[in-house]
Structure formats: structure tokens, C-alpha cells
Design a protein that fits this description.
It is globular, with a radius of gyration of 17 Å. The strands form two sheets. Strands 7-6-1-3-2-8 form a six-stranded mixed beta sheet. Strands 4-5 form a two-stranded antiparallel ribbon. It is an alpha+beta fold. The longest helix has 20 residues. The protein has a domain of about 150 residues: Peptide Methionine Sulfoxide Reductase, Chain A (2-Layer Sandwich), CATH 3.30.1060.10. Pfam families: PMSR.
Amino acid sequence: MFLWDSSDKQTPVTPETALVGRDAPVLPSPAPHAVLGTDILAEPGPDQEVLYLASGCFWGAEKLAWELGADATAVGYMGGFTPNPMYEEVCTGKTGHAETVRVLYTPSRLPTERLLQAFFESHDPTSLNRQGGDIGTQYRSAIFPTTPQQEELAGRMIEAYQEVLENNGFGKIVTEVRSALETTPFYPAEDRHQQYLYKNPNGYQCHARTGMACPLPGSGPVATVE
């Protein structure tokens, strides 16, 4: 990932202190998904939903989503203040954004609880503003649901996973859950970041995680994450 010489990347910014940004998007003409061939910013159809997930470096998080069976994925920036930020700006910690994956999916094929289970198991949700060696508010853990049902399910799964983690010596889950309607828009990242690990198979992936399985609603723990 981009390295920025700053000792203040974990301090949240405000609308007044955030970088100015720009009116024009940094991805004006998104290419089709390099793996799925779909429109990466397609609006959901009648049987589809969109869920925004932030779990550290968005390169590996996006790959996980398309491998799970998402209909389309896109990486970008969300939850901050700077309009249409560039990647290098986000890396300063001065935009307020989290690296986020937009997941378009069909719940009948990829249930929301399975998507959230993979989200929790693929990073350390007890780590504040960092994942492994990736440090800064851009790497914070966050869920931006687009429906009340998604938000309610996220809350129930956090409660269940918290019990598992506490019983195994981990701390409090710090995952932010905020409706996508109550935060700033999702700004797509530059083309070079879209499906990055398909374009760069040996590229960097953050593997910070607890190793603890996240229970699905109404069931016990599932297979332990390796």
C-alpha cells in the first residue's frame, strides 16, 4: 500500500479540517468488472442488495467478496468528508474515509449473514484504526448497510461474535455500523485499484484476523478460520 510519513493518521478529522477534494470523480468511466464482466457500480435489481464493507486494505477484501459469489464489486472510499478523494489523499488520514468495498449481491444465492460472517472472519474487528501493519483511520472496521434488515443483522452478529471473542481473550469489537444513508457517499477508487488482486495476482493482502469463527444467526460456531 501507499506509505505516507505521518504520525497522526489515527486521529479522526472533521469536515473543517479535511482535505478539500474535487468536484470530478477520480473514476469517471468505470471499466466492467475484470473478473465477473459486470458493471461494478450497477444499481441493485429487484432481487439484489448493496452492502458496503470496510475491513482494512480493500484489495483483499474485494477479492473475498467476488470469490464468495457477489454479482459485482467495487473498491472506493466512504465515511469521510473529502469529495472524490484520490488514493494518496486518503492515505494521509486527512479525508476521513475508510477503504471500502461496495458489494452488489443476490441474497438468495449469497445470504447477507454469510457475507457478514466472511467480513468478520477476514480481519480483526477488535483492532482500532489498523489491520496488522496497516495503520490509520482508512483501515478502520466499518459496515455501511443500505437496509434496516442488514443493519439489524449486523448488530446481532456483532453481539454473538463478541461473546466468542471475549471467551478467547480478545477485546471489544470496534466495528462501526452506520447506515449508508446517514454517511457520506461511496466514492469509487481509481481504476488501478479495481480488482487489484486479479490484475496483480502476487499483490499485497492483509491477513490480520482473530482466527475465531463467527457464528451464523441461529447456529453455533462454524469452521475455524485458518
